[in-house]
Description:
The chain contains three helices and six strands, in the order ααββαββββ. By secondary structure, it is an alpha+beta fold.
Amino acid sequence: MIDLVTPPASPExxxxxxxxxxxxxxxxxxxxxxxxxxxxxxxxxxxDPLMQAIGRLGIGEMIASFQEAYPDHLFSLVxxxxxxxxxxxxxxxxxxxxxxxxxxxxxxxxxDAEGHLVTVTGFFDPVSG
Length: 129
């Protein structure tokens, strides 16, 4: 059997993913817009089973609408960020303000030469209970 392991991400890519999650958690529009600008390319796209957005403005509007629908919920990173050849994968979870797990999933993305996200595609884990 071949024993291969995807390498952990560089510190720069880990910081990129942390900014990505910080943007989802940031309720202040100006701070969120600054996080998005430092994280996403101009023509970035986001897609998950429920939402899609194009460009920084669209991504900001999508996050704001999510926060309106689910106030007091926070995303956090689960485990390591993995990367190779400009592609990344990471797991996340969403908990309410009491710490109760509401949703978890895995995101896959691509990163440009300047270190910005170009695409993120999200998948949700099955919900139990």
